[in-house]
Amino acid sequence: MSHNNCTTTHRPSSRLDTCPKLFGCVDASYINACYLCDELSDRYICQSCEALCALRNRSFLDQNLVSTGHYPQLLSADFDCLLVLDWYQYPWTTLVPLLKFHKQAQIGKVLGTWFVLYRMYRFYDVATLNNKKNKIVTHTQDNLAPRVRCEDTQTQSALYLTSQHLPEAMVPIPLHPKRERQRGYNQALLIAETISELTGIPVVTDAVQRSQYTKAQTELDREHRLANLADAFSVSLTKLGHYSHIALVDDVLTTGSTLNTVCNALYKQYPRLRISVWCMTIAVDDTVVEEFCEKHLDHLQ
Ligand SMILES: [Zn+2]
C-alpha cells in the first residue's frame, strides 16, 4: 500500500487563505450567518454566541487533565499532558459534526483560534510586551525555550508564550487517505495549521500515517476499538528526530484509544519523545459533569 497520499498537505479553502484576521475569526469579506444563531455576522461565530460559550470561565480546564484523576478515559493515558479547549457539549456537539461531516472547514479555524486564546495563553507561561509589529518570534534570545506570540486585540500588546514546557512541533492525528478524500480535508490538520499561524509552532504532517482503513471508533465497544486500531498507524523513522517534545492535535477525545495507539507507535521509534496532547474537546459523562457542577459553578455562568 502506498502511503504517499498521506503526506499531502491540504491547504485550507481560499476563504481561509484570505482571512485577514484570526482573532475572533473575523473576515472582512465574510458576511454570512453565524453557525450557531443564524444572525448575519462577519465572524463564523458571532460575538454574542462566543460570549455565551463562556470559555473564559472554564478555569477548571486550565490544567493538565491527565493529572487530575477526574476523567476515567485518562487513567491509562500514554501521554504526559492533555490540554483541551472544552468539554464535548454544546456548542461543540453542533459545530464538530459540521466540521467533520458537512464540509464546514472554517470551524477548524474557530477551534484552533479559540484553543490558543482561551487555553494556551492561560496554561503556558506568558509574557506581555508592548510591540505591535506582526512578527512571529519562535525562540527566546537565549534560544533555549520556544517563545511564540500573538496579539491581544484588547490590550493592543503582544503576548509571548515563554514556557519551556511548550511543545516544539505539532503532529495532527492523520486520517486514512480514503477517509480524507471523502471528507475533503483532515480536520486535525486544519486546527493545527491555525494554531501554527498564531503561535509559530510548526506542523509536521508526514511523521505519522494511517496505514489501515479502520471502522469509525464510535461504532465499536472498547475491546473491538483496540483490535480495530492495532497496527493502524505507521511512524516515520526520521521526521521527528529533531524534537524532544511534540503535541498531538485532534478534535475530540472520546475513549483516548486512538491517541494511546499513536503514542505507542511513536515511542517504538522515538523512545524518549515527550508527548502532549492538544485535543480540542473531551467527552465527559454525567457523573463528571455533576461533580464539577458542585465544585466549579463558574462554568455555568
Ligand atoms: Zn451567533
From TrEMBL:
Show the SUPFAM superfamilies listed in the entry: PRTase-like (SSF53271)
* CDD domains from the UniProt entry: PRTases_typeI (cd06223)
Spell out the family assignment given in the record's similarity comment.
Answer: Belongs to the ComF/GntX family.
- PANTHER family reported in the protein's UniProt record: DNA UTILIZATION PROTEIN YHGH
Q: What is this protein called?
A: ComF family protein
